C-alpha cells in the first residue's frame, strides 16, 4: 500500500504467513528493511533450508545502518 514518495506500508503478519508457507519451495535468501520513526528499526528476514526466520532489532535513532553493517560486513561503506 503506497504511503508517500519513499514509504510503503507493509502487512508483516500476512507477509510472514505467506513466506512461511512458501519457504520449502524457495531458495535460501536474506534481506533487510530499515524503518525510521522515533528510533530506527532493523528487520531481518532469512529463508534457510525451507524455513523462515524473522528478527526485529530496535536501535537508537540513526543506528540501524550501523547495526546492518555489523551483521553484514560486505555492506560496509555501501549504505550511504
Mean pLDDT metric? 84
Number of helices: 2
Largest sheet: 3 strands, antiparallel
Radius of gyration: 14 Å
Strand arrangement across the biggest beta sheet: 3-4-5
Task: Give the % helix.
Answer: 10-25%
Helix/strand structural class: alpha+beta
What fraction of the residues are assigned to beta strands by DSSP? 35-45%
Distance between the termini: 26 Å
Can you walk through the features of this model?
The chain has 80 residues and is of the alpha+beta class. It is built from two helices and five strands. β4 (40-48) and β5 (51-59) form a beta hairpin. The model has no long low-confidence stretch (mean pLDDT 84).
List keywords for this structure.
alpha+beta; 3-stranded antiparallel β-sheet; two-stranded antiparallel sheet; 80 residues; 24% helix
Amino acid at each position: 500500500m503506497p504511503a508517500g514518495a519513499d514509504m510503503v506500508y507493509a502487512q508483516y503478519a500476512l507477509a510472514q504467513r505467506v513466506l512461511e508457507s512458501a519457504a520449502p519451495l524457495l531458495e535460501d535468501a536474506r534481506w533487510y528493511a530499515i524503518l525510521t520513526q522515533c528510533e530506527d528499526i532493523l528487520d531481518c528476514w532469512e529463508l534457510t533450508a525451507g524455513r523462515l526466520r524473522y528478527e526485529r532489532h530496535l536501535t537508537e535513532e540513526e543506528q540501524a545502518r550501523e547495526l546492518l553493517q555489523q551483521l553484514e560486513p560486505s555492506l560496509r561503506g555501501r549504505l550511504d
